[in-house]
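Title: Comparing notes on inverse folding

I've been comparing how different people in this forum approach sequence design from structure. To keep things fair, I'm posting one structure and asking everyone to reply with a full sequence. Here's the target:
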């Protein structure tokens, strides 16, 4: 499966497609239309593609920095408050808990 860009009536659209063999020929079957590609080149409504890329990278960078800072702060607070002994004495196997949480999340994502 992959994403394909097609042009129609001067606009670009994105489709999720897969290849399938039909009668000895390979055809592309559209799984789902993902919608129009707003910034397909040049300038659209005053926003350039490079400007959108810079904005997106800045947002990802800020999100990553905040996530690492908050997660690290919580980890330090929990370590100071509870300590490592909890992991040795605790009746909850945190590895199994983490594995279960990832499995349930994966099932929810694949079901939707």
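Reply #1:
Here's my take.
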């Amino acid at each position: 499966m992959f994403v394909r860009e097609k042009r129609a009536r001067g606009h670009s659209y994105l489709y999720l497609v897969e290849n399938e063999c039909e009668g000895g020929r390979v055809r592309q079957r559209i799984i789902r239309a993902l919608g129009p590609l707003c910034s397909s080149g040049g300038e659209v409504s005053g926003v350039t593609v490079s400007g959108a890329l810079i904005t997106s990278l800045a947002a990802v960078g800020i999100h990553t920095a905040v996530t690492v800072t908050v997660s690290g702060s919580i980890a330090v607070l929990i370590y100071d408050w509870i300590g490592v002994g909890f992991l040795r004495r605790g009746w909850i196997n945190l590895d199994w808990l983490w594995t279960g949480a990832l499995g349930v999340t994966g099932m929810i994502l694949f079901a939707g």
